[in-house]
Each structure stands twice: as C-alpha cells, then as structure tokens.
C-alpha cells in the first residue's frame, strides 16, 4: 500500500463517504457541476480529492450538502506540475486545502488552497497542523474548519473577490465623472472583449491567421495582449479581426439601427472614436498587474487593490464568475452614469465591495431540484428554459451545460461526436432569457458563447463561428420589460414554444423602470372577464373573485405570478429566488398576495435562506448585497382545486452551523425539513397564514403550541374591552416639519438610545425634556453642534412630530419597538403613573383620549407589562413577527398587540413589586447586604412571575421545552453563537459524563422516551430502558425492551470510544455511517427489540425539545412498521 492510500485509510476516507480518484473520473464527473469536474479532471488533475459526497443511493427526501469544500491530494507531482499547482488552486477557489506528498519519507506538505505566501511570492501559504485534523470525523463535525478558520481563513478573499475588486477598480476609474468619463456601456464592452481574448489565450488558442498576438507560451501571449493595449490602432484592428472571424453578437464595436422608412443603416456611435489612450492605459495597468495596480496606489484619491491578472488563469476560472461580476454594474446607478471616485475614495467604502450576483452553488441547488432530474428521467437532451430576468445569465449557462452533458452521454460519452451544428441547436432550442437591461443581454451572450467554447478544443475554436442570439433567444432593453405584454417574446412563449422550466433570480423591491404595477392592474381586469372554461389566462381555482395585490410594491411578487402567462406546457415548473419576507410580512397587501398566489399555484418546495442571510448578524451570507432575506420557491400553475388542496409543500430551513459559518457550506439538518399540506397555509380552507413564520424557526410541536396560544384573548382584545389605545412618542426628525414642545418642557424625558434609560420593568429618566434639549442642541467652542444627525434638536426644542401631550401624562404602559438583541430577543415594557416624554421608538398604551378610565385598567396594564417582558412573549414574537429573527430586532406595535394575554391580579401586583425593587437596588451600593438581599428577592420574583404566566396559559412540560429551546438553542444558532459569543452559552460544547449537569441534561432527553414507552412495554417480564453511550465525538442512545439490568436503573451511562459506540449501539461501522451523520446530523434505526439514535456530541443536539421531535418520528416509524407487518401477515 502506497503512502497516499495508507493516509486515506488513516483518515477514514473511502469511496463511499467522499473519496474520489482521478483514475476513476468517469464514475464521478457527473456528480459535480461541470465548472468543477472539468477543472479537476482535465486541468488540475490531482491524484485524488476528498469531498463529503455520496457514491451510492441518495435520500431524495434530504438534500445533499451544498457548496462542499474540496481537499486536493497530489502524490509526488513532477516539478513542472508542482509549479502550476498554486495558481490552479487559487483560481479554482473550491479547495481550501492542498496536501502534497513530495516523497514517501518526508513530512506531508499541507497548504492553504487560495492564499499565497506574500504579494511577491505566489507559492501557497503553508498550514501548520497535524494531518489528523482532516480526519473523516473532524470533517463530519466541522471541527476541522473551526480549528483552522480563525488562524488561516477568516477575512482571506478568494479568487472571486480579487477579480471582482480588480475589475471594479479599473471600471470605476474609467467611467467616473471625476475619472476618465468613458460611457459605462463602452467600458463593459471593452473589458468584456479583453476578458474574452484572455480566455482564448489561456485556453491555448493560437490565433494562427493574425500577427497582433504573438508568442509561443501562454505567458508570452498574455504579455503580447498587454502590450497591444498600448497601441490603440492595432488593438482595434485586432478587435475588428475578432468580429470578422467569430461573428455573432459578441460585444459589438458600434451601435447602429436600420431606418424603417429608407432601409438605411444609421451608425449611432463608434467605440473606437470614444476610447482614448488614457482609457487603454488603465486597462494595461490592470491586465499587466503593473505598479499602478499595486496595493496602496491610488488615482485621484481612489485606492486601488493589487491586480492579479498575471496570476489569473481563465482556463480554470469559470465563465460564471467572469460574467457574474457584471451583475455589480447592471442597473446600479452609483456604478454607472453618476459614479464619482470621491464617493468611493475611502478605504472603508472601497474595501466593502460586495457581490450582487447569484452564487453558483445556489444555482446548482435550483437545477438539482428541476433540470437535473428532468434530464435524468428522459432519453433526450431537450430541456427548454426561460430566465425572465437573466442578468449575466448564470441560470442559462448552467442549464446549457446540463443539456450539453446529457447530449454527450447520449452520444456514448464521446464529445468528439458533438459537432458545431448540433451544439448550436442545443443552445437555440433550449435556452431563452429576458432582461430589461440591454447590457445584461450582452453579458449573457458572452457567457453562453464561452460555455460553448468550453466543449471545443483549441484547434476547433480557431474555426468556430458564433451565431446571433439577440432578439431570437435573448430579449433585452426597456421594450423587453418582462411585464410588457406587447413585447415580441410574448407571442413566442404563449403560442409557439412550450417551456419546461422558468428559473431565475428576479429583482427585489420597488423598480421604477418596470411596468409591473400596470401589469397587475391589467391582469385583474382581464381575470374579471375570464369565462369559466377559458384556458388562456389563469383563474383563482379556490376563490375566483380574489384580486391580485402586490405587497409594498415588491416586484418579485409580480414575477412570481406573471410566469403563469407562459404556461403553454401544463407540466412546466418554476423556481425563482425571491425575498422570503413575501411569505410572512404582515401588511394586508402582502397577505392578499399570498392568498392569491396560494390559490393559483401548486407550491412544491420552499428553501428558506432567511436564517443564513439576514441583517441581525455578521459573517458569511448567501447574498452579500441582499437587503432582505431570501427564499427559493419551487412551484407550478394549479390546474384544479383538488390538486392544489392535496399538495404537500416541502419546507426547508437552512440554518447557520459550523459548515456555513466557516465556508458557506449548506448542511440541512433533519428537523429543518418539514412537510405541510398547502391548504394549511390558506385561511379560507381552515389554514393559518401565520404558519409560514412558525415553519421558519419551528416545527410541528411549535405549530400546535402556537395554535393553542392563538385561542387566548389578545392584547388587542383587552385594549378594545378596556377602551385603550396606543400612540408612539415624538419624532425628532420628520421631513421639514417643526412642532413646538412647550407643554412637556418640564416632563422627564426617557432617553432610550444612548443612555438606555428604558429597560424591562425599569424607567430611569435622568433629565427633563428641557434639559435634554439644552444638552442636545448645545454648541461647541467653534459654534458647531455636539450632536448631529437624527438626534440633533434645535435650541427651541422643536421636533418633526409631536403627539397630543395626553399620551405622555399619567397612567400608561410603555413598550419599546426594539428587542434586547443580546438577551434572547426579550421585549421591554414598564408600567408608569408619571408624566413622561419619550420618542417614537416607544409607544404608550393607555385609556383612549376623551374616555373614562374603566375599572380594572390598572390591573390589565400591569399584567401586560409582565407578559411582554416574559420569555413566553419572546417565544411568540420569534415565531410570528415578520421582522424579529429575520432582518432586525424591532417589531411592529401591531405584532405586539396580536400576542395572547391575560389579566391577573397576582401578576399585576408582582410587576409593581419588581419595579420597586429595581429602583431600590439602584439606590444601594453594589456590595452591601441590602443590595444582595434585593437581588435575591428579584430572582425569586422573576421565577414567581414566570410561574404565574405559565399557569395562566396552562403551559405544559412539552411546551415549556419549546420556549426554552427558542432561547437556549434556536436564537444562539441564528446569532451564530460559536462565532459571536451570543448568549455566553456554548451550544456546540461536548457533553462529559464526569459532569453531573451533563448527566442530568442527557437524562432529560432519555426520560422523554421512557415516560412515553413505559406504558407500552413495561411488564413483569420486560422493561423499557436506555443505554447512553458517550464518546468524544458522538453520543448514542440505545432504547431497549428487555429484562431490566440488576441495578434497576432505567438510564445507564457508559463512556466509550467513537468506533466502539457505533458497534455497541447498532453494530455499525463508523466510516460507513459518517456520511449520513454529516448530511442530516443523525443516524437512527431499529434492531430486534431495540432502536437507536446517534448524533454528534454537541449540547444543541440533545435538548429536551429535540427529544420530543425525535420521539414523534420514532412513533411514526414504529406505526408504519406495524402496519406493514399486519399487511404482510394478512397477505
């Protein structure tokens, strides 16, 4: 056995759990996207590589991990190849680790996959770690990446970031008003054309019939291209040569149109006459990596980042990355005609360049659920797709690759049999795109052309001809607005071409340039006229008179319904990346949109990405620039009410874990996949619109708990019963309004932002409003305000909005909009009888203006204070608020008022006691005996309050575990506690039998099963008991029905090793099940008279709430097994 194979055995790598050999490429090449498999097989050619993937059967119910990191292994590479490995690995960007066996006697070399030793030394940076860091178990549990991330990978950019920054820098200088003023479209075309040439050079195309690019090696030709940039006349002669040679629509050198009356071709502009030597000089510096593009240099104050163009290898870098970079410019005003270098010339702004584009691994997932199974199940390579907002074309490119790969498979795997005519037919018959920005179409054409060339040899490329795609397959410009029902593409897709899929990532938010609002109005008018039997336009199959509305003018909602106009193929499926908030925003228009959508479309799957792409926590995000949380909806047009009502939605929530936090690898845990009947989301069918948010962070048990809580009277009900209303406080700024505040000048003012004078049960204003105004509007010695921005007040104390002073007076309950972000998202409320001023981030609930105070009002207000400050309220808001746990730590007042509520004299009395003790504690010295006594009293009071609230809502033991789980596990997961330290609780900590607390914790999990099954299995002859095996990395629970052991314990703990645990529990081999542990984070099964579950030894996996979820699954599995046994016996 050679050294490398011995290493794989040592690490636990096998073909079954993710080890791939280059010599077996034909067996694995189709398991990876082409942009990855082609580079591994044909360019980098490692002897082997490791990536936790499957080789055998796949659990179709559980998605494979997405964006897995790859470890490359090289065994004694030749010196020439070894010299290329650093550049290849860097440009590949998918392999964080490179391991090289230089010889069989020296140490293994472990390298960083995409960081060089220095700016001047382009060898890979060494990683100092033991080889066992990369063992299968460590990879499975994410320990590898946790150990290495902060030391080697945090804040280290990959090739995509470098390339993005380089092109952005050069383009900004070229087009900025205070730069060189080149038209943005010309800059796009010029850079794109040069990238095309670099791609051809890096693909070893010789350009045999020209003399502009010279040299024998790739490097020599790259230098020749760079030098050509210094000669404008020759450069454009070369460009015209390329246009004549390859033809097609590739970045035209001029724009022209045909006069319809005369037939005359009119030239709009000629690129060559607008481009100057100064423009080309910037690009020379960029492509040559000259001194100008060295770190720290600047142009008119704009600091550029190092250019690595002489390191980039576009044979390795996928076209998807090149074209996706253009997404950063398309339709972005600040990056186009209004661009100014002075707006970017601070390093904080420049170095925060973020990507707008759809990550390729998200596209991979969408295709894995749509195009891939479609092609696999058909004996044809035909798969007609439309992207309605194609941008740079990544969905089209990846689908085209799938189509071509299927065609090659049908040709017996022989790529040589795929001639040019057939290649173009595959593209032109299957790939269609629309974009309102004509520049986007040019980038898409570039991307598709390059994709075709990827399947041709350098010699074949010499003779290749591009065909025209514009206005045939790709439609762009303002007239091609997807909502323009008169555009040419409408007739094509409604009458001639039945589509198999509509896929894409349409724009989000409000888009002024699109006519989508007009389309919605027209659609409503049309649907009113539809006869019952019409098949041309969609009807509401559940509620025919339902109008379509768009929530908050959200354009992605319009895209989601517009696609139905192209349902020429009744089996067409749709998958769009949209804002997830469309599923749970609580405003009436969005709710109406949901009703319409769910009444017309069969929603097959929702992939919720909100938890890994939000504004409440930093770190890795899916979409860096997304202002809203994303989701992917997979659906089709409903053709009958019965089909829609019976449909089961697969709801998947992607949550942050070690794999995502460190490398953006998406690993979906078992409990985060839910199956829900679509009717359960439709209120008219007895469903619940609020269920969307519950499914995001919760599960079936949370749904039932929430359903019970919804049966109680709400805060709003109490407000109506006791004639209460609410009013927000004053706004310091509200446009140009100026309102006098004389009536409250002597009121105490609650400053909630800086001084934090409003906490739970605690109001501690330190100034009157008059004093606050004087302090805030005060001048410094040089006569400038000490406070600027929204908190600046003029010297007279005028504000933008000022409510009636009544709301600041007397008895009221004050509630903050903001949640305590660092304290389990707790809300903040306090009862007050004082005159007290406050800002609009606080609201007062009090007797309606002009009404008499009703008896019992004080008790209600105090009771509500106790409730709003409780963990039950935090749980409720976490599972119902459209913002909390999504993109902010604030809630709407209306969401507060939807909470279940009670009025209870004991709660009311205890609330006042707590508020009084808090004030007494503030008046005591920290270490005196009185302060200690008050703290103890407060602790007991909080516990008593929690118990009173629990009893008032009859909260069961199971429901209490759900509340605890939301604060102890769910919120720390969302806040990425291992990285951020949120909650000061290590939810990934390993449990240790030597720690009594850990034994108690595991016992709680075990007792959930014991309490349920003891009634079923316990008898004189046998008992139900549990053996708990605890190893360093895993914990196994073995549930046994047999004679109780002599000691009589129903929970038996045993310390063991990892391998021994798998043998003891299920007679399993550790390496044979590790893949399942990685993919779904648990392994479970049945033996004779026993069943078992194995999960990582992590605190979060063994919470009592998780035990209840696991129990339900085992009960279901046992019931199905018994039903099968009965049927077998009857047969």
Automatic annotation (TrEMBL):
Type II methyltransferase M.TaqI-like domain residues: 430-609
PROSITE patterns in the cross-refs: N6_MTASE
Gene3D superfamilies linked: Vaccinia Virus protein VP39
BP terms from Gene Ontology: DNA modification; methylation
Alphabetical list of Pfam families matching this protein: Eco57I (PF07669)
Enzymatic reactions: a 2'-deoxyadenosine in DNA + S-adenosyl-L-methionine = an N(6)-methyl-2'-deoxyadenosine in DNA + S-adenosyl-L-homocysteine + H(+)
Name of the protein: site-specific DNA-methyltransferase (adenine-specific)
Lineage of producing organism: Bacteria, Pseudomonadati, Bacteroidota, Sphingobacteriia, Sphingobacteriales
């Amino acid at each position: 056995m050679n050294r490398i194979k011995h290493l794989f055995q040592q690490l636990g790598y096998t073909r079954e759990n993710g080890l791939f050999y280059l010599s077996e490429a034909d067996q694995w090449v189709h398991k990876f996207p082409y942009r990855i498999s082609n580079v591994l097989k044909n360019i980098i050619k490692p002897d082997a590589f490791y990536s936790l993937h499957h080789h055998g059967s796949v659990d179709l119910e559980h998605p494979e991990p997405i964006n897995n990191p790859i470890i490359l292994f090289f065994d004694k590479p030749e010196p020439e190849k070894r010299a290329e490995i650093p550049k290849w690995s860097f440009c590949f960007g998918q392999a964080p680790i490179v391991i090289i066996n230089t010889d069989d006697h020296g140490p293994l070399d472990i390298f960083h996959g995409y960081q060089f030793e220095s700016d001047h030394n382009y060898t890979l940076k060494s990683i100092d770690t033991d080889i066992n860091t990369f063992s299968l178990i460590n990879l499975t549990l994410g320990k590898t990446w946790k150990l290495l991330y902060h030391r080697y990978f945090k804040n280290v950019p990959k090739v995509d970031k470098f390339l993005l920054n380089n092109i952005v820098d050069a383009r900004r200088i070229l087009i900025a008003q205070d730069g060189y003023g080149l038209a943005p479209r010309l800059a796009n075309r010029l850079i794109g054309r040069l990238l095309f040439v670099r791609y051809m050079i890096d693909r070893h195309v010789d350009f045999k019939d020209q003399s502009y690019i010279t040299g024998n090696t790739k490097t020599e030709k790259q230098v020749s291209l760079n030098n050509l940039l210094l000669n404008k006349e020759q450069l454009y002669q070369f460009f015209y040569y390329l246009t004549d040679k390859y033809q097609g629509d590739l970045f035209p050198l001029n724009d022209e149109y045909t006069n319809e009356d005369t037939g005359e071709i009119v030239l709009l502009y000629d690129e060559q006459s607008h481009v100057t030597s100064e423009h080309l000089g910037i690009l020379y510096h960029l492509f040559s990596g000259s001194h100008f593009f060295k770190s720290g240099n600047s142009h008119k104050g704009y600091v550029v980042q190092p250019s690595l163009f002489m390191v980039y290898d576009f044979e390795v870098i996928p076209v998807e990355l090149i074209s996706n970079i253009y997404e950063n410019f398309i339709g972005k005003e600040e990056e186009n005609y209004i661009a100014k270098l002075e707006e970017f010339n601070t390093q904080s702004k420049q170095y925060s360049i973020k990507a707008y584009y759809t990550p390729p691994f998200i596209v991979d997932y969408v295709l894995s659920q749509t195009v891939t199974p479609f092609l696999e199940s058909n004996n044809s390579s035909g798969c007609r797709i439309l992207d309605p907002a194609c941008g740079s074309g990544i969905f089209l490119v990846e689908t085209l690759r799938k189509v071509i790969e299927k065609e090659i498979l049908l040709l017996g795997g022989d790529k040589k049999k795929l001639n040019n005519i057939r290649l173009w037919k595959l593209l032109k018959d299957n790939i269609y795109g629309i974009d309102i920005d004509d520049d986007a179409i040019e980038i898409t054409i570039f991307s598709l052309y390059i994709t075709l060339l990827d399947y041709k040899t350098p010699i074949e490329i010499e003779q290749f001809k591009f065909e025209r795609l514009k206005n045939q397959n790709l439609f762009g410009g303002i007239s091609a607005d997807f909502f323009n029902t008169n555009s040419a593409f409408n007739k094509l897709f409604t009458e001639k071409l039945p589509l198999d899929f509509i896929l894409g990532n349409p724009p989000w938010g409000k888009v002024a340039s699109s006519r989508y609002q007009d389309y919605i109005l027209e659609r409503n008018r049309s649907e009113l006229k539809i006869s019952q039997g019409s098949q041309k336009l969609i009807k509401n199959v559940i509620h025919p008179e339902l109008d379509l509305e768009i929530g908050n003018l959200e354009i992605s909602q319009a895209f989601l319904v517009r696609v139905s106009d192209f349902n020429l193929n009744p089996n067409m499926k749709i998958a769009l990346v949209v804002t997830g908030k469309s599923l749970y925003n609580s405003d009436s228009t969005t709710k109406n949109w949901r009703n319409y959508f769910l009444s017309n479309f069969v929603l097959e799957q929702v992939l919720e990405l909100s938890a890994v792409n939000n504004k409440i926590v930093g770190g890795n995000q899916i979409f860096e620039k997304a202002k809203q949380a994303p989701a992917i909806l997979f659906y089709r047009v409903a053709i009958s009410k019965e089909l829609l009502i019976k449909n089961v939605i697969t709801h998947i929530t992607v949550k942050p874990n070690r794999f995502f936090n460190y490398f953006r690898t998406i690993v979906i845990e078992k409990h985060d996949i839910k199956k829900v009947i679509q009717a359960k989301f439709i209120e008219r069918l007895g469903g619940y619109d609020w269920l969307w948010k519950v499914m995001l962070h919760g599960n079936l048990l949370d749904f039932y708990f929430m359903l019970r809580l919804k049966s109680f009277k709400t805060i709003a009900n109490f407000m109506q019963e006791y004639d209460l209303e609410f009013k927000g406080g004053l706004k310091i700024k509200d446009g140009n309004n100026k309102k006098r505040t004389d009536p409250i000048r002597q009121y105490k003012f609650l400053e909630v932002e800086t001084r934090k004078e409003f906490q739970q049960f605690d109001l501690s204003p330190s100034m009157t409003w008059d004093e606050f105004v004087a302090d805030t509007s005060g001048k410094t010695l040089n006569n400038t305000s000490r406070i600027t921005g929204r908190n600046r007040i003029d010297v007279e104390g005028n504000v933008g909005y000022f409510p009636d002073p009544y709301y600041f007076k007397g008895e009221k309950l004050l509630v903050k909009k903001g949640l305590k972000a660092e304290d389990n998202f707790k809300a903040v409320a306090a009862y007050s009888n004082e005159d007290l001023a406050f800002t609009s981030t606080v609201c007062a609930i009090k007797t309606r203006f002009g009404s008499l105070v009703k008896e019992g009002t004080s008790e209600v207000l105090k009771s509500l204070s106790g409730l709003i400050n409780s963990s039950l309220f935090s749980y409720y808001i976490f599972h119902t608020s459209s913002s909390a746990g999504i993109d902010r730590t604030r809630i709407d007042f209306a969401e507060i008022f939807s909470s279940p509520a009670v009025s209870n004299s004991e709660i009311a009395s205890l609330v006042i006691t707590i508020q009084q003790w808090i004030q007494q504690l503030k008046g005591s010295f920290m270490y005196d005996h009185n302060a200690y006594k008050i703290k103890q009293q407060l602790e007991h009071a909080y516990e008593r309050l929690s118990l009173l609230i629990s009893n008032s809502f009859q909260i069961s033991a199971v429901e209490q575990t759900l509340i605890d789980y939301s604060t102890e596990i769910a919120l720390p997961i969302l806040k990425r506690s291992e990285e951020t330290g949120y909650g000061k609780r290590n939810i990934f900590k390993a449990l240790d039998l030597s720690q009594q607390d850990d034994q108690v914790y595991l016992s709680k999990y075990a007792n959930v099963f014991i309490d349920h099954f003891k009634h079923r299995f316990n008898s004189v002859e046998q008992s139900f008991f549990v053996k708990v095996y605890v190893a360093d990395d895993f914990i196994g629970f073995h549930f046994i029905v047999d004679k109780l052991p002599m000691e009589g314990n129903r929970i038996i703990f045993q310390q063991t090793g990892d391998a021994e645990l798998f043998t003891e529990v299920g007679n399993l081999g550790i390496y044979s099940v590790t893949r399942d542990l990685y993919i779904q984070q648990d392994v479970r099964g049945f033996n004779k008279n026993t069943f078992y579950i194995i999960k990582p030894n992590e605190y979060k996996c063994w919470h009592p709430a998780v035990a209840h979820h696991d129990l339900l699954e085992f009960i279901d599995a046992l019931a199905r097994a018994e039903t099968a046994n009965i049927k077998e016996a009857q047969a």
